[in-house]
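Here comes an entry:

___
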Amino acid sequence: MAGRQVFVANPDTDIVTLLRFAPSTVSWIRRAAFVVAFVVIALSWWANRSGWFQYRPGGTEFTVSIRPIVIGVFLVGSLVALRFEMAGGVICAFAAAALMAFAERQLIPTHAVIVVAALALPALLWFIVDLNSYARSTAFVGLGLAAAAVVGGFGVGQYIYDYYWGQTHPESTITELPDSDVEWAWSGAVTESSARVTVKTAVDGNVRLLVADGPDVTTGRVVDPDSIDERVASFTIEGLNPDTEYHYGAEVNGEIDTGRQGRFTTFPIGPTSFRIAAGACARVGSNGAVFDAIAATDPLLYLITGDFHYG
């Protein structure tokens, strides 16, 4: 008669065996999980009231819409864990994973890690409690459910973020400019004889603007900044000719940035025909082909009728 096969766990590879603890230790882990869950909920309330969260540009939607929902799901998971630790842990793991899609985009990195880890820690502790309560086969089922909750939560969070705050149009295929000492530059306040240019530099130092009526800005005149604040330099350009295209480029610490140069056209005098483009509220991090379409119209004036940009 054939003998019965017995499975012997390998302590180096069997995660269930590795997480087996003495009953007294499990009891302390259970208490710690509930203490951490209470602290997480209390700190979430305090952080919201005190303004502790630091956001990326355009990230305040995290507090307004997302945080209350996620904390509500987490609270439900904590209450369920009073009776069923594994089920409560699955719910909290789902909430933590769903939050990742928002936290990584709308909070600064350190706060995003703290928030997600805070929600995930009680879930992990409740998993450990139940791994010490169930047979190995049941424990592996619980680990599978936990993994599914993490994957499913992240997928749901990603879908909701993309649906409400993600891209609404195709991405631009234009190659991104390489990094340089100039982070960005734009022109505005154009008249028939003047304009303003704002430049944000990536480094501290001396900043000047070169302006010419052709692509080679080195042949133009030099304009000193009106003001510099947090590496944002503002320039006023006066004495320009009407209905003329001008090119500009920034000189940072004696080096002319050739990658991020811009152009504008002064307004004409008298009756004329011209094109105006308008747009507003590009979503955070957007790089839409719609901007290529706007640029292709070559408008004399581009009106930004709402929020300019977030990042």
About this structure: Helices lie at 15-18, 23-50, 61-81, 85-106, 109-131, 136-165, 289-296. The two ends are 73 Å apart (CA to CA). The CA atoms of residues 171 and 287 lie 6 Å apart.
